[in-house]
Amino acid sequence: MNKKNDAITARDVDFAKWYTDVCLKAELMDYSSVKGFIIYRPYGYAIWENIQKYLDERFKKTGHQNVYMPLLIPESLLKKEADHVEGFAPECAVVTKGGYENLEENLLIRPTSETLFCEHYAKIVKSYRDLPKKYNQWCSVVRWEKTTRPFLRGSEFLWQEGHTIHATEQEAIEETLNMLNEYKEMAKNLLAIPMVTGKKTEKEKFAGAIDTYTMESLMQDGKVLQSGTSHYFGQGFAKAFDMKYLDKENQLKYVYQTSWGLSTRLIGATIMVHSDDNGLILPPRVAPIQVIIIPIKPENEDVMNYANLIKKSLEEKNIRVDIDTTLKTPGFKFSEAEMRGIPLRIEIGPKDIANNQCVVAKRNDYQKITIEINDELSTKIESLLDDIHNEMYEKALTNLNNHIHEATTQEELKDKLEQGGFVKVSWCGDVDCENKIKEETGATTRCLCENESGNCIYCNKKTETKVYLAKAY
Amino acid sequence: MNKKNDAITARDVDFAKWYTDVCLKAELMDYSSVKGFIIYRPYGYAIWENIQKYLDERFKKTGHQNVYMPLLIPESLLKKEADHVEGFAPECAVVTKGGYENLEENLLIRPTSETLFCEHYAKIVKSYRDLPKKYNQWCSVVRWEKTTRPFLRGSEFLWQEGHTIHATEQEAIEETLNMLNEYKEMAKNLLAIPMVTGKKTEKEKFAGAIDTYTMESLMQDGKVLQSGTSHYFGQGFAKAFDMKYLDKENQLKYVYQTSWGLSTRLIGATIMVHSDDNGLILPPRVAPIQVIIIPIKPENEDVMNYANLIKKSLEEKNIRVDIDTTLKTPGFKFSEAEMRGIPLRIEIGPKDIANNQCVVAKRNDYQKITIEINDELSTKIESLLDDIHNEMYEKALTNLNNHIHEATTQEELKDKLEQGGFVKVSWCGDVDCENKIKEETGATTRCLCENESGNCIYCNKKTETKVYLAKAY
Question: What is residue B163's DSSP assignment?
């Protein structure tokens, strides 16, 4: 790749600056006048719509139903589960007035909706016949943040939150793991991002959960991003909210519960895993525009006829295609298409038509291919898009595999962390060691991995537990 | 129709109670612990998803793009347009604290997002080449209300808000009228609801608009419901927010602007236009379940095989179909299907199978039809669903036409208002007369109709203006 785009800072000059350059210049988002609240521009929102469409279909196929719960939570409701309020209260935006009047009780903008689902479930579930309940909600949530970055950490973000209740522990645990797996499959099949998955430590788990499972992805700068979580709650909330049902033997039992969420943060992951110094590189299946046709000499009627013909044949295959008919130079259009990360660019001019061909440029590796214009063109483009997806996934997977290290000494740990990515270490399970490691290296425990004998990297105590450490967003 | 369902109050006993009975018993919604904030349950939310899907497709086909703007608006931003803040400030929920700290400036939960769109447009639009911008947003908004009713009036509701800017007045006015027409077509084609459309009076128009166009529907109790509005703003907001662009002659010009919104209130309209004393009656195209198959003796293997066969053949036609396999009696299942407003119910038992037939019951008119089970079954069901849609629309249209009255004296006006529906009267255009009419009759101006000579119904002044009056929700 030749860096051709001066509007974007190079990654090795300043990765953080490169990231915000891409976000802004590819017109994915803009800042609003409230800190931490971004505007999702059409191109960025369309990526989210494609993620929504994929997941919503999967959720429905696996027996989930969409609902919508209130935006505001009474303070007293959030307080019903002790760990939960401790985790979320400090992040809440508080409504104290409505229609010029002071409210009797403060209302919190939902930072997450467990408490609302619990209150509703407690009301509508009476019998084992009512179980399971598997609800999902698409909405925005607000969590007051001091340091914010587009898509990665904001005071408001878009997400889905699934909330389910079950008659048995086993069923609830299965749901927790199934949904984590749905997330991982989506990341692979739609976003071409390989994920490391596992259970969070006690310190890092969700406020109120028994177990939190996470998927974590590796960015190009070697830092790691938590990309989706699935929680098993056991009966904690059930007891706090009195969520009981009559079982087949007419006994009152508490339900078992899960929740799982995935957010617009995934847009950030997609940018940081795949893109380069010339701008965004979007995996084809999530790209709002998959193919852009750039007519060389659009004033030539033949050229436009061919461009329209190609467009139509691609549309018949449900490929998302556009023609750039603006009055800019072809070179300018090329770099604009690169900036926006459009997977395939088709160039067609009078010379191409004379040879009954067009030139196809792949965004991911800058390869140019000359293709004959005939009935098979659209099939070829379709398979090129699949190729691009697979190449992008393989590249990301190779990078991930090259950055899963092991360390047995603190020296080695620091050295490996310098190289970026995950470092697998033995850990005694003590939160003090976890805190000390963070203090001294800046790395946090991302998730537990396999059980294997060893000595805790910090206190040297014998242990069976291994954990992934990484510097994370 | 025989009233068979004691769980629902009859319409002529208490229409308001009937309405909330249907909302609750058909499990469309539930109350939350915050007044005016409802829970959209799966069945109710699925209706909204079908409305969304229809409209979103139309919006995209007509060149609109989806975006997402922040939930919170700085108080100072709302104040930039004088009429707008006067209209909305009294209804706002106010965030005064974020993460335990008092905010420097109060933030308002969006009651509508004109100001946010204006701020963004002012920033991104430079030249005539950037115009038009046609954005839409799906979200929830908060307007603090004293009296609330499910779907009809709530402190939070779901909606879409379109916001567009244009280079010329003509283009903006066309957009305003086109979108009103899109709404009207959707109401007709999806919800089987006929609408009365027209321009609002000065008093009733949107805060900050030059013209507001509305569509109004007639409920079964004779009251009228504002069901969607489209606003033409001229350059009012453009001047307040400095939304300028360079035209082809390199002159700085202000843009012309529109906005248009439609909300979950339409669910309320659908209920109140079509349903009866046995529960909900849903128009087929918006119904989450279009056909319910009720096996008589589901323990009979043949019966279940046939039920599954029918289900499969309907699914191949993309008909939304379900089998009720619960252990309730057929009679109970019938009234449950009626309560939920499922357009068609298929009854199939051993006797039917012996005769190679099934019984199909239409929800809208309780007609029962015996249909042979063969290759044409699914085509017949498909056309029955279309029949139901048309019958429901025609019935609603006849009712509407029977309730468009005229009056030339105040006596006559009161008499006609008693009969329910719209009353067309001459009106001088003076807001004092408008206020007096409301005071004395309880009716408000719904929209202007054709220009025709007459004398103002209140002050007797000569006028060319006629207006629709009605008692409204």
Answer: E
Q: Where in chain B is the domain with CATH 3.40.50.800?
A: 291-384
Q: Looking up tokens 């769109």, which residue turns up?
A: B117
A291-384, which class in CATH? alpha beta
Q: Angle at the Cα of A162 (from A157 to A165), degrees rounded to 5?
A: 150
* Chain A residues within 8 A of B90 when measuring between CB atoms: 99-100
Give the separation between CA A348 and CA A113, rounded to whole angstroms.
52
Question: Considering only CA atoms, which of B310, B317, B386 is closest in space to residue B348?
Answer: B310
Q: In what order do the strands lie in the sheet with B224-234?
A: B65-66, B133-142, B156-166, B256-263, B224-234, B211-218, B196-199
- Closest to A121 (Cα-Cα) out of A174, A72, A69: A69
SS3 assignment, position B169: helix
For strands A404-406 and A422-426, give the pairing: parallel
With CA atoms as reference, the chain A residue closest to B33 would be: A74
> What DSSP designation does B201 have?
P
| Contact criterion met (CB below 8 Å) for B133 and B164 | yes
For residue B96, give how far its alpha carbon lies from the nearest alpha carbon of chain A (Å): 6
The ranges of chain B annotated as CATH 3.30.930.10 are: 15-274
Cβ-contact A112, A141 below 8 angstroms: yes
- ipTM surpasses 0.90: yes
B209 neighbors B180 (Cβ within 8 angstroms): no
Q: Is A88 on the interface with B (CB under 8 A)?
A: no
Cis peptide before A132 (omega within 30 of 0): yes
Cβ proximity of B185 and B432 under 8 Å: no
In the structure encoding, which two tokens stand for residue B425, read together? 């009267």
Q: Which of B28, B97, B106 to mutate against chain A (most A CBs within 10 Å)?
A: B97
The total number of residues shown for chain B amounts to 473
Confirm or reject CATH 3.40.50.720 for domain B15-274, answering yes or no: no
Q: For tokens 């609830």, what's the residue? A: A172
User: pLDDT band for position A1 (50/70/90)?
Assistant: low
The predicted model scores a pTM of: 0.97
pLDDT value at residue A81: 87
Of residues A49, A68, A71, nearest to B142 (C-beta): A71
Touching A: B residues 36-75, CB under 8 Å: 37-42, 45-46, 48-49, 65-74
B43 to chain A, minimum CA–CA distance in Å?
8
Cβ distance B225 to B187 under 8 Å? no
**Tokens 């017109």 — which residue?**
A27
A332-344 pLDDT per residue, tens: 999 999 999 999 9
B99–A90 C-beta distance less than 8 A: yes
User: Cα separations (Å) of A441 from A16, B13, B338?
Assistant: 20, 73, 65
- Return the CATH architecture of domain A406-470: 2-Layer Sandwich (3.30)
Render pLDDT for A95-123 as a digit per residue (tens, 0 to 9): 999 988 999 999 999 999 999 999 999 99
B240-271 pLDDT, tens digit each: 999 999 999 999 999 999 999 999 999 999 99
Helix (H) or strand (E) holding B15: helix B15-25
CATH superfamily of B404-470: C-terminal domain of ProRS (3.30.110.30)
Q: Average pLDDT, stretch A117-130? A: 97
Beta-sheet pairing, A101-109 with A93-98: antiparallel
Closest-CA residue in chain B for A39? Answer: B69
Q: Is the pLDDT of residue A400 over 70?
A: yes
Residue B112 half-sphere exposure, CB side, CA atoms within 13 Å?
A: 21
* Contact yes or no for A313/A319 (Cβ under 8 A): no
Dist CA B262 CA A192 (whole Å): 37
Please, are residues A163 and A69 in contact by the beta-carbon 8 Å criterion?
Answer: no
Q: Is the peptide bond before A288 cis (omega within 30 degrees of 0)?
A: no
Chain A residues near residue B120 by CB distance under 8 angstroms: 30, 32, 39
